[in-house]
Amino acid sequence: MSRTLAEKVWEAHVVRHGTGAEPDLLYIDLHLLHEVTSPQAFDGLRQAGRPLRRPDLTIATEDHNVPTVDIELPIADPVSRTQVETLRKNCADFGVRLHPMGDAEQGIVHVVGPQLGLTQPGMTVVCGDSHTSTHGAFGALAFGIGTSEVEHVMATQTLPLKPFKTMAITVDGTLRPGVTAKDVILAVIARIGTGGGQGYVLEYRGSAIEALSMEARMTVCNMSIEAGARAGMIAPDQTTFDYLRGRPHAPSGADWDTAVEYWKSLRTDEGAEFDAEVHLDADDLTPFVTWGTNPGQGLPLSASVPDPEAIVDENERVAAEKALSYMGLTAGTPLRDIHVDTVFLGSCTNGRIEDLRAAADVLRGHRVAEGVRMLVVPGSMRVRAQAEAEGLHEVFLAAGAEWRQAGCSMCLGMNPDQLKPGERSASTSNRNFEGRQGKGGRTHLVSPLVAAATAVRGTLSSPADLV
Amino acid sequence: MEAFTTHTGVGVPLRRSNVDTDQIIPAVYLKRVTRSGFEDGLFAAWRGDEQFVLNREPFRAGSVLVAGPDFGTGSSREHAVWALMDYGFRVVISSRFADIFRGNSGKQGLVAAQCEQSDVELLWKLLENEPGTEVTVDLTRNTVVAKDFTAPFTIDEYTRWRLLEGLDDIALTLRHADDIATFERNRPGWLPNTEPVPVS
């Protein structure tokens, strides 16, 4: 029988099929931990007297809460410090490898896993973080879970789950220069809506997806959750294998050949049926930005702030009115006329080396506009080291941007990197929710190219506007 | 987990769609390492507004939240469920829930009852016209009742069974420990190992 990629990976991990209303029991190959969603789960294990079943399939890093300056000093906020120290104690007590602040491999959990070669095609990967969908770029089935499920995986290395439905997102054609993976996924979310993917695994396919680098594929899969989907996947191919070869945890020698042979079978079969299908033409896409307070409220940069009156659906209209009021925007204003105070380049969506290179190329020879601050926060210490080896940090510093240590930073404003009330950002992160980047802060989601051009002009811009 | 069969409490109309988990509890409230006391972060940004529904009597003591579609989108933070429960909510009614939020609710004993949007609208009108109206959510019959309003709701059958029985998921799974061990013996040897550290 013909099967989709998601169905193949699912079937390969079923420990036990459920009967009737009972879910399947699915084996988990890799469990990623961080300081925010794990402490209560470790406590649950202790209280029940249960061991951590597979420390060898578990790894932790400090990312959500950590400062991105003065990391050699104790964390100033005592509550944040306690949370980080709790993770360190838990990892020591249960034997989990941890990459703490200052470690050469520390960074955002979804940047660290792939760069270590821990994320591989056909695996099941979970983490108490919704952006775990990132790892689907390798053809893994990867999804975010809550703290109860984190404890469940710790205790059993499995999860009881009902199979997800499947949706094909086919993007054919060629992306124009200046149009990136971020623009693709923002356009997908604007098309299907923030609830459009509920209950589905999205499989991104088509010539425009195949042409993307691994890092760009991670950007696409990362934001699957923003369309409501549990996971996003891309079939592994030569690009995937080339990325993985030689990484610290990738198979080697004869194991490599065995693994690649298996990985090549991880494609949706000819004739397999998806529960839903969506098509986009890559040639039609242009730089995309959000104007509202959910990631589905986006438009091409060349458009204007929409008029809620023109929206037929009542819930959508009310949502748009509330969004414009929160964002301090007036219908009809060209998006290019919107001034920002802050530009944030980083996050598990766009904090990898290619993102930094792309932004540096735009910034080279320019200055960040008067009155605008730009934060550049590498996704991991390894990304940071690579950027410094290439001299990218000098480009950022010469332009007047701040060059920070690795972490989630202003993506969710859990550490001191926050917007003040009323401040407006162009941000390469993944969520423009009310208050996400700081209470009262206003967020426009953009690609790294748009972020850099916006930093230079002070208004939402693309690199083409700098010429 | 405490078993849930039926609950009656004051209904709270929340006329908003896409209530994401950053609205339910902002990230700055997620720094605690304990599992209680999250009620202070619930809808933190909105609670500064004295007109916000939870700042008004008799909604302040509500325990059945009636929200717009796509409730609980965004982050996987289970803290969103803890905040709702710590405040006193036992049920959230919406026409659409985000998947992870729905899952987290089921693990904690918060009932995520999915109703038709037209029924949500009727319930909103009733709760706004007659503030303090009590809503009864009966998990044995899958019904929402308030005065002469009655509507069915849906919930995943397995979650419903677990809630009715008050069963712990981990204990249920550990009944199949042999199956897990068998599966593990057959995993390919080349799969990655995180190189754990010796327990200190």
From TrEMBL, chain A:
UniProt EC number: 4.2.1.33
Question: Looking at the record's lineage, which domain of life comes first?
Answer: Bacteria
Name the pathway. Answer: Amino-acid biosynthesis; L-leucine biosynthesis; L-leucine from 3-methyl-2-oxobutanoate: step 2/4
Query: For binding [4Fe-4S] cluster, which residues are annotated in this chain's numbering?
Result: C348, C408, C411
Q: Which SUPFAM superfamilies does the protein's record reference? A: Aconitase iron-sulfur domain
Q: How is the cofactor bound?
A: Binds 1 [4Fe-4S] cluster per subunit.
UniProt function note: Catalyzes the isomerization between 2-isopropylmalate and 3-isopropylmalate, via the formation of 2-isopropylmaleate.
What protein is this chain from? 3-isopropylmalate dehydratase large subunit
Q: Which organism is it from?
A: Saccharothrix tamanrassetensis
From TrEMBL, chain B:
This protein's UniProt keywords = Amino-acid biosynthesis, Branched-chain amino acid biosynthesis, Leucine biosynthesis, Lyase
- Any one Gene Ontology molecular-function term assigned to this protein's record: 3-isopropylmalate dehydratase activity
Q: Which Pfam families match?
A: Aconitase_C (PF00694)
BP terms from Gene Ontology:
L-leucine biosynthetic process
Record flagged with keyword Amino-acid biosynthesis? yes
Q: Which domain of life is it from?
A: Bacteria
Q: What is this protein called?
A: 3-isopropylmalate dehydratase small subunit
- Entry EC no(s): 4.2.1.33
Name the reaction it catalyses: (2R,3S)-3-isopropylmalate = (2S)-2-isopropylmalate
Protein family according to the UniProt entry: Belongs to the LeuD family. LeuD type 1 subfamily.
Domain Aconitase A/isopropylmalate dehydratase small subunit swivel: residue ranges: 1-115
- Keyword Ion transport included in the entry's annotation: no
| Oligomeric and partner information | Heterodimer of LeuC and LeuD.
According to the UniProt record, one GO cellular component term is: 3-isopropylmalate dehydratase complex
Q: In which pathway does it act?
A: Amino-acid biosynthesis; L-leucine biosynthesis; L-leucine from 3-methyl-2-oxobutanoate: step 2/4
